[in-house]
Amino acid sequence: MSDLRLLVVTTSLERAPDLVRTLCEERWIACGNIVPGVRSIYRWEGRVCDDEEALLWMETTADRLEGAMIRIAELHHYAVPKIVAVTPTAVHEPYAIWARESTRSPA
User: Fold this and answer.
1) Does the predicted model carry a pTM greater than 0.90?
2) What is the DSSP letter of 26?
3) What is the mean pLDDT of residues 13-35?
4) Which residues, in sequence order, are bridge partners of residue 32?
């Protein structure tokens, strides 16, 4: 098992690039993929909502996970953003090395 973690987040398509770019620039994530056109149906404040969103798929390391989740919540415009961490069972080791280096603070 790898020390990499996958973060799954939904947001508006308009705000997705800025969120991913900031997290990448601040080294909370190594990479973020923006998948447009996700339709989310959910219960919020007593009613069922049906909205188009973007799905973000982002990689970080286990030691950066908690900070990344906190930072996403700070930057996110939803009152209760979806932030789900997934532990992969296997990761191509050259990619894992790159992701570790990309999230490490510069010396």
Assistant:
1) yes
2) T
3) 98
4) 58
